[in-house]
Amino acid sequence: MSVILPIVVALAAAFAIEAAATARRVSLRPGDVAIRLGAYALIMAFWFVFSWRPWLAGFSIVTTIVVTVLVNRLKRRVLGEPLVFSDLALLRQVPQHPELYYTTPLTHPKTAVPLLLGAGCAAFWYTVEPAALPHGLGASLAAIVALPLALLALGFAARTRHGRAAFAARFPAPDLEADVARTGVLATMLAYWARRDAEAAAPSPAGKLSLPPGRGDEVVVVVQLESFMDPARLGGPTLPMMERVRGEAVQYGRLTVPTHGAYTMRSEHAALTGREGASLGFGGFDPYLSGGGREPTSLARLARAASYETVFVHPYHPDFFDRAGVMRELGFDRLIMIEDFSDAPRVGPYVGDASVAERILAEVRGRKGPILVFCSTMENHGPWKPGRLAGIDDPLGQYFHHVGNAGRAVEALIDGLAAEEATLCVYGDHAPSLPCYRPGDGDPRTDYALFRFGRPRAGAPQRIDLRIAALGCRLRDAVRSETT
C-alpha cells in the first residue's frame, strides 16, 4: 500500500494537470486513458529507479508534466505546434549553441536558483522519505537490478515485430494535434518515436536516378534565405530586390513551407528532394534525424550523376542538425562551413549574407565544369533580442535590418550570375518567429524567385505560388547531363 498510494495520487494529479492545460476535449476512452497513464507510469518508474522513494518519484512525474505543459504551451504560441519526439533529439543543441535560443546560461540566477532549489528539495526529501526497497540485502539488490532491466526489456519489446504492430495499430499515421488530445504529449512523443524507429528499420525502396532530357545549365545556385519573407508584408520597407524579382525573374511567388519560425531542415529537405513531408511518415518531423540524408534521388545526387560539382555552403557549425553527415549523404562532394568563414565579418552573432554571396560567386568563378551550389544562410536567424545589433533593440527593427542585407546579397548574386548560363533560385525557409508575427498572423507563406540567365526570355515574369516540394521538383529541370 505504501507504494500504490503515491502512484495513484501522482498519476491522477498528472492527468488532471495535463487535461486542464489541453485546449481540446481530453479523450476518456479506456484505451486512450490507459496509454496516457502508461506513459506517466513509465516516466515515474524512470525517476523511481534513482531514488526508490515513491512519493519523491510521484512528485518528479508531476513536475515533469508541469514542465512539459509549460514548454508545450510556449512552443504552440511561438511555432504553432505541440511538442514532438524530434524535439528531444534537438535538446543537445541548446547547450552547444545557446545563441540560437531564448535561453539563459546555467550560471545565470534565473536558471541557477531554480535548479539549486530543486536539487536541494530533492536531497532533503531523499533524507526524509524512507526507501521502498524490500528488506534484506539480497532482495534489495535484486529489486535495484530488476526494475532497470524491466524498463530496458520494455524498450526492446517495443522494437519487436509485435511491439511495432501494436504501436502501428494505435498510431497508424501522424496526426499530431488529434493524438496529443487523445493520449497526451508524453505518450504521443514516445509513440511517435517508436513509429519513426520502425519506419527507419524498414528497408527503403531503391530509387532511380532519372535525369531530365536536354542540356542543363552550366551553373545552378540555390539559396535558402533564413527566415526570409518580403518585409513589406510585415509593414517594413520595400526591398529593391523584390522589385528586381518582379521584373527579372522567370517566376516568383509565395511559397508554402512546412512550418513557422523554425525547423529549417523540413524546408531544406523538401527543396533538395522534392518530397512532401507527409510522404516521409513519422520522419517528416525531422527528415535528417530519420533518414540521415539517404535520398537516392536528391537534387545533389542527380547533379553529381550529370557530372556537376556539388557544393554545400552554410556559414555555421557542421554538427548543427548533423548537416555535415547529412549533406554528404544527400550527394554534396564539398562542404563550405563555419571554419571557411573565420575571417568573414559578423552581422549580429552570425556571418553576414554579403560574405556568403561573395563566397558563392567565388565558387562559380573558380569552377572547372558545371556546378551546383546549395546554400543555407544564417544572418537572419533568431532570436532577435536586445544587444544583437548596436542601436537596434526592437526585434522587428533587427529583422528589417538583416532582411535588407539578404536582399542586397541576392542582388549581388543576380548581378554576378547575369553573364553566366545559370539558374538562380532563392527562397525563405520559414516565416520569422517574431513577437509581432506568430502562427495565425497573416499569410504564413514565404517568398521565392527563380531566375534563368544566358537564355532567351520566354515572356514576362509569372507569379506562380508553389509548395516547397514542387519548387524542389522544378529545380531538377536545371540539372541535366551535357550528353543527353
TrEMBL record:
<feature type="transmembrane region" description="Helical">
    <location>
        <begin position="137"/>
        <end position="158"/>
    </location>
</feature>
<keyword id="KW-1133">Transmembrane helix</keyword>
<dbReference type="Pfam" id="PF00884">
    <property type="entry name" value="Sulfatase"/>
</dbReference>
<feature type="domain" description="Sulfatase N-terminal">
    <location>
        <begin position="220"/>
        <end position="434"/>
    </location>
</feature>
<feature type="transmembrane region" description="Helical">
    <location>
        <begin position="55"/>
        <end position="74"/>
    </location>
</feature>
<keyword id="KW-1003">Cell membrane</keyword>
<keyword id="KW-0472">Membrane</keyword>
<dbReference type="InterPro" id="IPR017850">
    <property type="entry name" value="Alkaline_phosphatase_core_sf"/>
</dbReference>
<keyword id="KW-0812">Transmembrane</keyword>
<dbReference type="GO" id="GO:0005886">
    <property type="term" value="C:plasma membrane"/>
</dbReference>
<dbReference type="InterPro" id="IPR000917">
    <property type="entry name" value="Sulfatase_N"/>
</dbReference>
<protein>
    <submittedName>
        <fullName>Capsular polysaccharide biosynthesis protein</fullName>
    </submittedName>
</protein>
<feature type="transmembrane region" description="Helical">
    <location>
        <begin position="33"/>
        <end position="50"/>
    </location>
</feature>
<dbReference type="InterPro" id="IPR050448">
    <property type="entry name" value="OpgB/LTA_synthase_biosynth"/>
</dbReference>
